[in-house]
Design goal:
By secondary structure, the protein is mostly helical. The chain has 22 helices and no strands. The longest helix is centred in the C-terminal third of the chain and has 19 residues, at 354-372.
Length: 387
């Protein structure tokens, strides 16, 4: 295959801009000129998938693969179409296996393969696929969520809960929530060099937060120390210190900083968050974690993550109905919250509601793959390798 034709470039441009209907029309026009170009068919498959026309997506993706068995974006579209259509797990397994062969380092292919194996009741094969995904990327949260669900089904909540917490730590949404509480956002401005920070408290606290956001924890600690040189009872600095200790797995120190911050100002929400996290990391303290995260959820009622954290603590206490209610609140606030979807699946499995649990896992997969924008990554790699 040579590079993009003019007709394909037009359809591609429209698709990238989100103009679905004009892009579909451009694809059909391109097919009338040349129906042997796999790019047109895989583009059409992607567009049909975006519109939830699964049978049409399957047909187009299959045709692209017939023309070129190495067309990786077509395998992705085909696998997703099979998964979202449901009831076609044998075909789905084959497609994800093929994609993992075509692009061996594609983590999502192994995650999706595991979910297809699981839906087809091949539990051990599913676990192997998720472990392979974590070998490729130890930070793959969705693989960890799936392994936690598998542990729950085999051995119960007590065994599964550490996996859910580990997956939550891998999920960037939790850190994003902490920084939103601290009033820190990614505005595109790089964190300053510590030597360039002004000497007033506000500048130092802002700089320490920006450095923590960029995961330059050593520099963040250095700037916080300067704040403590002036005032060792600064609640916000103590809460940020607690967060940095959590990131370094120094849980006792994080708990001490959180408690000290709250003794100074009990309304320091970043400290409340950190205290809840430290409680959740200590065996036997789920009840305390549930209380803290429940209070945090009340103080941030429109944020999904505190409700998820509250639900996970309730799950550890085996208060499944209350956990379900908290997870449902999170999903209502953010239907794309993968962590809440997996949590609901866990609750449903404990209640024997397997069909609902599998549906939630499929919705989690749906939102996760849409968020990744993986099709265009594969599409660009494929066209570059084929030109």
């Amino acid at each position: 295959m040579s590079g993009r034709s003019q007709q394909v470039a037009l359809a591609e441009g429209l698709a990238r801009q989100g103009h679905i209907q004009p892009a579909v029309e451009a694809c059909y026009q391109a097919l009338r000129i040349d129906d042997a170009d796999p790019l047109i068919h895989c583009l059409l498959a992607h567009l049909m998938l975006e519109g939830d026309f699964y049978d049409e997506a399957i047909e187009a993706a299959t045709r692209a693969i017939e023309i070129d068995p190495d067309c990786s974006p077509a395998y992705l579209a085909l696998g997703l179409a099979y998964d979202r259509r449901g009831g076609m797990w044998d075909q789905s397994i084959l497609v994800w296996h093929e994609l993992a062969e075509v692009v061996p380092d594609l983590v999502t292919a192994h995650v999706q393969l595991g979910e297809a194996f699981s839906a087809a009741a091949f539990d051990e094969e599913a676990i192997d696929a998720w472990r392979k995904a974590l070998e490729l990327d130890p930070h793959e949260a969705r693989a960890m969520y799936n392994l936690a669900i598998a542990a729950l089904r085999k051995e119960g909540v007590a065994t599964a809960l550490p996996g859910f917490r580990k997956a939550g730590e891998l999920d960037p949404s939790q850190d994003d929530f902490f920084f939103s509480l601290a009033g820190i956002c990614d505005d595109g401005t790089p964190a300053p060099d510590p030597d360039d920070v002004a000497e007033d408290r506000e500048s130092r606290l802002e700089a320490a937060g920006a450095l923590a956001f960029e995961e330059d924890f050593f520099s963040a600690v250095e700037v916080i120390r300067w704040i403590f040189d002036e005032d060792h009872d600064d609640a916000d600095a103590l809460a940020l210190s607690a967060y940095l200790y959590i990131k370094q797995e120094a849980i006792n120190e994080a708990m001490a900083c959180s408690l000290r911050a709250l003794s100074i100002n009990k309304r320091t929400r970043t400290a409340i968050y950190c205290l809840g996290v430290t409680f959740s990391k200590r065996p036997g303290l789920n009840e305390h974690a549930a209380r803290v995260f429940g209070a945090l959820a009340k103080s941030s009622p429109d944020e999904p993550i505190p409700h998820v954290l509250h639900a996970e603590a309730l799950l550890g206490l085996q208060k499944f109905s209350l956990a379900e209610k908290a997870y449902q609140t999170a999903v209502r606030l953010d239907p794309t919250c993968v962590r809440a979807r997996f949590g609901l699946a866990a609750v449903f499995f404990t209640k024997g509601r397997h069909a609902e649990a599998m549906w939630e896992i499929r919705r989690a997969a749906y939102h996760d793959t849409r968020r990744q924008g993986l099709f265009w990554d594969l599409y660009d790699s494929y066209t570059e390798g084929s030109s």
